[in-house]
Amino acid sequence: MRHWVLITGCSTGIGRALVPLCRAAGWGVVATARKPGDLANLPPGEDLRVLPLDVTDPASIAAAAGACVDLSLKALVNNAGYAQVGPLELLRPEELRAQFETNVIGLHAVTHAFLPLLRREPGARILQVASILGRMSAPLAGPYNASKHAVVALAETLRLEVGREVAVVVVEPGAVQSEFRATLARVWGDLPERARGTRYEAIISGYLAHRNHQAGRHGLTSEACARRLLKALNAEHPPRRLVIGRDAFWAGFAKALLPAAWWEGLLRRVYRLG
């Protein structure tokens, strides 16, 4: 009997790269995206179902769960999300609320809907895709930092509560070479205008260039990152935490080792905060 995995956020990036890897490894894949047209070019087959899934829409989540009741669903990869960035003092409350609706509330809503299906399969597992920024904070990424800290807290709590029945893995990637930063630029909206004439104007203008440089220098490809997730999906005993990328490993190590004042001073220099 084929086991199935449902993956959210398959339009681009890690989610998209994971689909063919899972299929090649013998998994059936339920590939989901807010806009199903983004998945139209996936090769069809008996091992693939394509479903619309907007993690902020309860009706969409319920419909997707209903479409999977006949499957031997053994894994869920909560990958959907985006980054809302900008100085906190310029951030509107509704922007923070929208960030949490997708990255945190949406992740929990999908987990809540599919957990009953996962419980039916021995050895089931949930991969909650957080970030290395779920254990530290970077300047100008306050909403994203906060959402990923919340994802980590939810995942660790869920593992304490259901981990003997369904394994829960916290996935903590570092920089990934994907369209993530192009999306980041789109969700800025009028932030550059809000920053005009403030101390952040010059900082924001160089922020994307800095992040793209970091991704190009240290970031893994989406496929390389997806291969690490596939290993956790196939593992007999999945890891509790999956740190992906040398940058993530060394950043976490430095954060734990350095005195707080040194660590904060380093980040201020890197992000030119003076």
Helical amount? 40-55%
Assign the CATH superfamily.
Answer: NAD(P)-binding Rossmann-like Domain
In CATH, what is the class? Alpha Beta
**Overall pLDDT confidence:** 92
CATH architecture term:
3-Layer(aba) Sandwich
Which structural class do you get from the secondary structure elements?
alpha/beta
Task: State the distance separating the first and last CA atoms.
Answer: 59 Å
Biggest sheet statistics: 7 strands, parallel
Q: SSE order in H/E notation? A: EHEEHEHEHEEHHHEHEHH
Contiguous runs where pLDDT drops below 50 for at least 5 residues: none
Total strands: 9
| Total domain count | 1
Rg calc: 19 Å
- Beta fraction: 5-15%
Total count of helical runs of at least 4 residues = 10
What shape does the CA trace take? globular
Describe this structure in words.
This protein has one domain: Rossmann fold. The longest helix has 26 residues. The chain has 274 residues and is an alpha/beta fold. The strands form 2 sheets. A 7-stranded parallel β-sheet has the order 3-2-1-4-5-6-9, sandwiched between helices. Strands 7-8 form a two-stranded parallel ribbon. Helix 2 runs parallel beside helix 3 and helix 3 runs parallel beside helix 4. Strand 1, helix 1 and strand 2 form a beta-alpha-beta unit. It has 10 helices and 9 strands.
